[in-house]
Design goal:
heterodimer, A: mainly alpha, MetI-like fold, 2 domains, 15 helices, disordered C terminus, B: 297 residues, mainly alpha, two-stranded antiparallel ribbon
């Protein structure tokens, strides 16, 4: 018995350190963003408690018109994009999972081909340009409007709905569209919740397409602005369009401003994280390997 | 034939419901794939593109810059497979030894979290944590090692890629293995305990063999994405000091094509990468089907 508890102690210790390795860099940034600017120098790179306490970094970041605009852009793109994703994915999944029609096999092979052949970012860019969609939210909303992997997850879920329920609706004279909206969708709430989170997280985190399709900074989503600060180290945009007094300017700590922007970008994910854990985890376990 | 036509006509609503999805795929997926013929043409801003044959490919394969990015892509992908692939397996073995309860929930919730952060956010976190006075250098100093500027160090930047990818994905990727372990019958463990098997003996003789299929499948599927090497990651962690060590195919295509405007040449590079990727995906799909009965689709 003693040896068992020995190995157990080792396992618990390793896992505890693994969790610290994930948490400390995150908590350190949070502590930095909440420290008061004159004492932030005292904060060690491993410190997780703020030195002093101040919300000045958040006040400055959230009073920057460009950042506020970008948060609005991100929210808009995420909501509209996810609604479009769900509509297209579910209606396509219904037809492919629950009905038989001439040409169905052809469509399924077509979808597998879509999964295997990836277009080049160059020809995708040129397409968006030719369609006149550069510098529009539409370019971001339409990109990956249906993810084939998610489509297959939803199809698998729709297939599990008992045929008897659908059959009885059909006898009552319901057509396909009615069966889809009144029976299949309401019975699939957990799967739709999973997909909402999948797609929503994707849109919120998307930055690359916005980097190449959107050149007007007023239309940038938050991730692109954040990238401008933390990756490109562009400090002038961080304070652009704000009239800060020289004293305030002198007291600012750019690393802390960056960390507060990172925290703002993570907050929506943290708020949804309990739901994500509940649905994502299940979706991934059910979905088998690739999805 | 007539019956078929009749069925098509009576099922019109189904085709109507499929129309938006199929239209989307054709416009945003099929057309850009067909347009990759641009690799064999010279791009013209006005008028039709002109045929260029294999010219761009000849330039590509004789370009030392392209050979460098190809080499970087292969090195980085190989390093990731060797050093990251086993970690989620080990993690799942450890987590499975923890009985359900608050500690297990805590470890799982924390280790999955980085998977949901964008690479922009992760780059921000890592640039700060690896800075000369950041957390990692404090740990190094504790062990009497000097501080290093990892983000600009040519010798270390590939390891930064390996460890940041591990930090992001190891927890989440362990889910599949944990699911497989949960399917093992508890009777096996009970019997082993009666025979006096230790925790580690049970891991080695019951859990690991039961994981074999999942391990093989995941490994094969990873191979299918070998040429990607993690574009988003490199794109956000790259800087001028280390570009020669971590410039990969996709970042090269981005720079040459979208920044410098050499569309045809960049598309040729894309097409080359896509062709290898296609062979790998198809190959691994059929290999996986044969070995484990589970394919990519």
């Amino acid at each position: 018995m003693r040896r068992m508890s020995w190995s157990r102690t080792i396992i618990y210790t390793i896992l505890f350190f693994v969790s610290l390795a994930v948490l400390i860099p995150l908590l350190n940034l949070l502590a930095m963003s909440l420290s008061s600017p004159d004492r932030v120098n005292e904060l060690s790179g491993l410190g997780i408690f703020p030195k002093g306490f101040s919300l000045i970094n958040y006040e400055i970041i959230l009073s920057n018109p460009m950042i506020l605009k970008s948060i609005g852009n991100s929210v808009f793109i995420t909501i509209v994009g996810t609604v479009l994703n769900l509509t297209l994915t579910s209606i396509t999944a219904y037809v492919l999972a629950r009905t038989n029609f001439v040409g169905k096999n052809f469509v399924l092979i077509f979808l597998i081909a879509i999964m295997v052949f990836e277009p080049s970012m160059i020809t995708e860019y040129l397409l968006v340009k030719d369609l006149g969609l550069l510098n529009t939210y539409a370019s971001l909303i339409f990109y990956k409007a249906i993810n084939v992997y998610y489509l297959f997850i939803l199809m698998r879920f729709f297939q599990e709905i008992p045929e008897s329920i659908i059959e009885s609706a059909r006898i009552d004279g319901a057509g396909h569209f009615r069966i889809f909206t009144r029976i299949v969708l309401p019975l699939s709430k957990p799967a739709l919740a999973t997909l909402t989170l999948f797609y929503g997280v994707y849109h919120w985190n998307e930055y690359f397409r916005a980097t190449i399709y959107i050149s007007d900074p007023g239309k940038w989503p938050l991730q692109v602005v954040l990238r401008q600060f933390v990756v490109t180290q562009d400090n002038t945009t961080m304070l652009a369009g704000m009239n800060l007094s020289p004293e305030v300017l002198a007291s600012l700590d750019f690393a802390s401003l960056q960390s507060s922007t990172i925290v703002i970008a993570i907050i929506p994910l943290l708020l949804l994280y309990p739901l994500i854990l509940k649905y994502f985890t299940k979706g991934t376990m059910d979905g088998g390997v690739k999805d | 034939m007539k019956a078929k036509l009749k069925r098509i006509r009576s099922d019109w609503i189904l085709y109507l419901m499929l129309l938006p999805g199929i239209t989307y795929f054709i416009i945003f997926h099929v057309i850009p794939i067909i347009n990759m013929k641009l690799a064999f043409e010279d791009y013209r801003i006005i008028g039709e593109n002109t045929w260029a044959g294999l010219k761009h490919f000849q330039v590509l394969f004789s370009s030392p810059a392209f050979m460098d990015v190809l080499q970087n892509t292969i090195i980085i992908s190989t390093m990731k497979i060797i050093f990251i692939f086993p970690i989620p397996i080990i993690l799942s073995l450890l987590i499975s030894e923890v009985r359900s309860g608050p500690f297990r929930k805590y470890v799982q919730s924390v280790s999955y979290l980085p998977h949901f952060l964008s690479w922009v956010v992760i780059a921000g976190i890592w640039i700060s944590f690896l800075s000369p006075d950041g957390g990692f250098n404090i740990i190094r100093n504790f062990f009497q090692l000097p501080s290093l500027d990892f983000m600009t160090s040519k010798d270390h930047i590939r390891w930064v890629l390996v460890f940041s990818e591990m930090w992001r994905s190891a927890g989440w990727d362990s889910i599949l293995y944990i699911a497989a372990i949960m399917k093992i019958s508890p009777h096996l463990y009970e019997a082993a305990q009666l025979d006096g098997a230790s925790t580690f003996q049970q891991m080695r003789h019951i859990t690991l063999p039961a994981l074999a299929t999942t391990v093989v499948t995941v490994f094969i599927l990873n191979l299918g994405f070998f040429m990607n090497a993690g574009f988003d990651q490199v794109f956000n962690l790259m800087n001028d000091s280390v570009i020669s060590k971590i410039d990969i195919l996709d970042t090269y295509v981005y720079r040459i094509g979208l920044l410098n405007g050499e569309y045809s040449y960049a598309t040729a590079a894309s097409l080359f990468k896509g062709a290898i990727g296609l062979v790998l995906i198809l190959g691994t799909h059929f290999l996986s089907k044969r070995l484990t009965g589970k394919g990519v689709w």
